[in-house]
Design a protein that fits this description.
The protein is of the alpha+beta class. The chain is built from 7 helices and 17 strands. The strands form 5 sheets. A 6-stranded mixed beta sheet has the order 5-3-15-14-13-12. Strands 1-2-6-9-4 form a 5-stranded mixed beta sheet. A hairpin with a 2-residue loop joins strand 10 and strand 11. Helix 1 crosses helix 2. The longest helix has 25 residues.
Length: 333
């Protein structure tokens, strides 16, 4: 994500004393970024997404929040908004430069109770901590069991945070950050290969005996967890190309194709799959061909980010039992 100049990513999480959740903040460059969103899951939990409609007045936002804790976790965005206000960042609403109202779009995923304590969920303080981390982390982006990916699970497999970027030959960069927490699965049940790697055509199938052992361990873990399929995959796509809000919304929509390539099935009634798009550039696409290339790159890059999230995730043990990671099931990192 930070390959797009000025973009920063911060995480805050807790994974102790019954906690297994967190918040991730994507912080736009000074001056904000044109923003849009496309929501396709049947059970979304969001904040300020109506403001991103191209018909509405807000053009730029300073941060996007992805958080665990289901609807309760949206409190994290309040902490980010307060932090932005202190920096003087937001929509100007008065003659004093300090008179701003930060517009902080946010989306949540379901991870309630996965660490054992049903009431352990992100709040404003955790959101503020993630914003501070975004400023302090510079270009480094932690992946795996961090931020909103701390309690993420996909079909019994440990999910997490992943990020990737693509530099087009014509110049623009397109980046993606994904939090993988899906009802559907990321791996082909017949081979054990990740769907995203099957799409890319670059993979080495695991040995049949390893795949059999992995399937058995995963089934035991699913049975032990005994949790309802309430999930959601969240993502942010960013580019240094200058897009209008309508074009950014198209980018968010096309990126959902990349989500559906890596997770099957996607966009179910118990998912809240949401993709944000941010444009932080000053150079407009050279023409329709370059814009189409940016849209296509959004989908392909999100597929890669989802693969990286799954490979970076680590096995965790909770009060409900083990949540195994792909890297441990198939001896990969």
């Amino acid at each position: 994500m930070t390959d797009v100049p000025g973009m920063r990513v911060g995480h805050a999480q807790r994974a102790d004393d019954g906690w297994l959740t967190g918040t991730t903040v994507v912080l736009a460059p000074q001056g904000g970024a044109v923003a849009a969103v496309d929501v396709r899951g049947g059970g979304p939990g969001t904040r300020e997404t109506d403001a991103l409609d191209p018909r509405n007045v807000v053009q730029r936002v300073d941060a996007v929040v992805l958080t665990g804790g289901s609807a309760f976790g949206l409190d994290a965005a309040t902490g980010v908004a307060s932090w932005l206000e202190e920096q003087g960042r937001g929509v100007p609403v008065g003659p004093d430069p300090a008179q701003v109202v930060p517009v902080v779009p946010a989306a949540c995923l379901f991870d309630l109770g996965r660490g054992g304590d049903w009431r352990a969920r992100p709040d404003a303080a955790l959101g503020r901590a993630a914003a501070e981390d975004a400023r302090a982390s510079g270009s480094a982006v932690a992946q795996g069991n961090v931020g909103a990916g701390t309690g993420a699970v996909t079909a019994g497999l440990k999910g997490g945070v992943g990020t990737a970027s693509t530099r087009l030959s014509s110049g623009p960069t397109v980046a993606a950050l994904a939090v993988v927490n899906a009802v559907g699965t990321v791996l082909d049940p017949e081979s054990g290969v990740l769907y995203g790697e099957l799409f890319a055509g670059r993979y080495a199938p695991p040995a049949p005996e390893r795949h059999t052992a992995a399937r058995e361990r995963l089934e035991r873990a699913r049975a032990a967890l005994g949790m309802p399929p309430l999930n959601t995959t969240l993502a942010v796509i960013a580019t240094d190309a200058a897009l209008t809000k309508a074009q950014a919304q198209k980018l968010a929509g096309c990126a959902h194709d990349g989500l559906a390539r890596a997770i099957r099935p996607a966009h179910l009634m118990h998912d809240g799959d949401t993709v944000f798009a941010l444009s932080a550039g000053r150079r407009e696409p050279a023409g329709p061909a370059e814009l189409n290339a940016i849209l296509a790159a959004g989908a392909d890059t999100l597929t890669r980010a989802i693969v990286k999230a799954v490979l970076a995730a680590e096995t965790v043990s909770t009060a409900h039992g083990e949540i195994p990671a792909y890297r441990d099931l198939y001896d990969r990192a």
